[in-house]
Amino acid sequence: MTTEPFQLQSDALTMLQDWGNLSPHVLAGFTTKHGGTSSGPFTSNNLGLHVNDTELHVRENRRRLADSLQFPIETWACADQVHEDHIVKISRDLTGYGALNYNDSIKGTDGFYTTDKDILLTLCYADCVPIYYVAPEHHTIGIAHAGWKGSVKNIAGKMVQLWKLNESIPTANVHVAIGPSIGKCCYKVDDRVITEVDNILSSSDTFDSPYQKVSDGQYSLDLKKLNLLLLLNAGIDRANILVSQYCTSCEKNLFFSHRRDKGKTGRMLSFIGFKS
Ligand SMILES: [Zn+2]
Fold it and tell me: Ligand 1 centre and the CA of 259: distance in Å?
């Protein structure tokens, strides 16, 4: 019996518990749909500025999160996410952009990492997979956004490669957590997606399939398992990987879901930061 790594801390917040022992200064988590000011399909804690919600509401929701985490909004790194595999190293001069005005977001980016303290790396989600990284001995943290497109571009493994090449961090020192996302129970895809999944896993030694055929041309895909396999391929020790059991579509009282809500819905925020 495995325990869920993301535990409700308040109405509005789940926190990644297990990394407390690893590095007491790391704060990582994932918001819920509760505790905000938005209405309609965005009720109530929508943190996405790009989904046609009232901006005043989203800004207030973001300020509430900043207050509760004690990471001021000027310390946030925010992306204009495009389902690609571009990862940006964040320093203090890049924070604050996009935190209250979407147009200022760091463009075309689906992953962040930093070696600096007092920066909150943030990304938005409604079904895609949040992937959290920490190398405690190297004071390095990261986060990635992996829907099926980012997954088959291997953004999960790319972070590990970047840390190795640019920061000289041995892969053995990297811990990863796969957060709440849509589960295989609720995620059907077609041949177009499966062809790309096969391509990215073709170099894998142990092909443990992350999908099952459900009918002609229809498959249920386990995006969390796909990213787990990609992380193992990248050399991460299985013992260093946590996987959330939450399905954002099944947990309709807790999370927004792009697929379940037919595209008109809010966004949760994943975040990770080092406190000094
Ligand atoms: Zn489900």
Answer: 10
Ligand 1 centroid distance, CA of 3 (Å): 18
Domains detected in the chain: 6-183+223-274 (3.60.140.10)
Ligand 1 centroid vs 161 CA: distance in angstroms? Answer: 31
Question: How many angstroms does the Cα of residue 169 sit away from the middle of ligand 1?
Answer: 35
257 C-alpha to center of ligand 1: Å?
A: 10
What is the Cα–Cα distance from 150 to 148, expressed in whole angstroms? Answer: 6
252 Cα to the center of ligand 1, angstroms = 9
Query: pLDDT of the chain along its 276 residues, tens only?
Result: 568 999 999 999 999 998 988 888 999 999 999 999 999 999 999 999 999 999 999 999 999 999 999 999 999 999 999 999 999 999 999 999 999 999 999 999 999 999 999 999 999 999 999 999 999 999 999 999 999 999 999 999 999 999 999 999 999 999 999 999 999 999 999 999 999 999 999 877 666 899 999 999 999 999 999 999 999 999 999 999 999 999 999 999 999 999 999 999 999 999 999 999
| Interval between CA 6 and ligand 1 midpoint (Å) | 17
Rg of the chain over Cα atoms, rounded to whole angstroms, equals 17
